[in-house]
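Suppose a classmate hands you a notebook page containing two proteins, each written out with its sequence and a corresponding row of structure tokens. How would you begin to make sense of it? This section walks through that situation. The first entry is reproduced here exactly as it would appear on such a page.
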Amino acid sequence: MAKVEVIDMQRQKVAEMEVDDRLLKTTEKSHLIYDVVRWQLARRRRGTAATKERSDVSGGGKKPWKQKGTGRARAGHSRSPLWRGGGTIFGPRPRDYSYPLPKKVRDAGLMAALSAKYREEKLVVLDRFGLEGIRTRRFREVLQGLGVSNALIVIDGPDETLEKSARNLPGVQVLRVAGLNVHDILRHEHLVFLRSSLEKVERNLQS
């Protein structure tokens, strides 16, 4: 079992918790992390890019001129892709970019990302956030006291005080355990857990 220090907002050690080795001591698996991030970004693509093909462009129902005798090239439609104002050939159409990825691979990628933060000593476990109210300034002071500026903060459930205090700070994101993902872990320098949220992540990955 990996041992992690639990600290308070003054950066003082208040306890020590044991975490499953699979969660924090997984060997580096960059290929799994790559696969999971690629899958995530593909699912986020809207896939709404579209162009008008020949049948979508309005007008041009009449043959521009007769087939023979004019000395000009044959033409049957003024909205041909060869004409100015015509349709587009093989342009993008609305599509779904998402694809399935096995849950075991997704979990393995998440554990590899968590382990990477642990090895880099960028993982912080807090006993609790004791904010009296929605105060961005106070929240910033707490992060400065922890030596953290660019961070992903993982909470175990809805916390309006914490979420609203952090939403205007650049480089800081508050995320609930249910939404924890590899991409957001990697794009922040520090990963901050509440003790309860880390326990919940451990239970979720063991099930």
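The notebook's second entry, a different protein, reads as follows.
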Amino acid sequence: MKIEIITLFPAYFNSVISQSIIGRGLNKQLFEIKIIDFRDFALDKHKTADDAPFGGGGGMVIKMEPLYRCLESLGYGRTNKAGEKIILTSAAGKLFNQQKAVEFSLADRVTIICGHYLGVDERVLSLFEIEEISIGDYVMTGGEAAAGVMLDAVIRLIPGVLGNFESALADSHTEKILGAPVYTRPEEYMGYRVPEPLLQGNHKEIRKFRRFESLRKTHENRPDLLNNIPLDKEEIMYIEQLKKKEKNERIDL
């Protein structure tokens, strides 16, 4: 996979792409990353990349010309080739999730434009096939952090990046529910023991325990996700028990 990141602040990514799984994956040449400063494509000697918005108001807008020239230099036109994706980090975009991470990880080439200020001149979206993506309902200073989040989520899905690919497949949100709690040695610490089902070696019971713990965690932290996953009769009864327990605890208070 080839990944390009277009940014006003290329130095931001110095540590992002050299650490942890991203750095290891680069060293193994499992993918390539190119950081591009689109000020280099500005038309004036001051490398101006932004200007005031038409219609007035505060803030600045990323200019058309440098972004257009940058994407054109990378070989992009009005329609992307098969396996190519251009992503713009944008508060107005579709929400990034695990399904999007999987989709992007299967591409041959992903180009991420880091949005800034009020956004980019809207006309660039008419000239190129760009997908606007948001990582959440909050405001950030710029798109570099969002690009870093997407980069991490996508790269870990590339075969060979993780030592054990099963860990990527078992991640929270891969099955649209949160992951089960995990434990490691020692078996007991300050009176707290690892749950017994994880110590017995019965794989069927371990899978069941982890499934129910995932459901519990999802019910507690993201109950909205439970509306979108199939549950069998035993699982539905378990969720109802959790609801009754919560109700009784509220009454006791």
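A careful reader of the second entry would note: The chain is about 35% helix and 15% strand.
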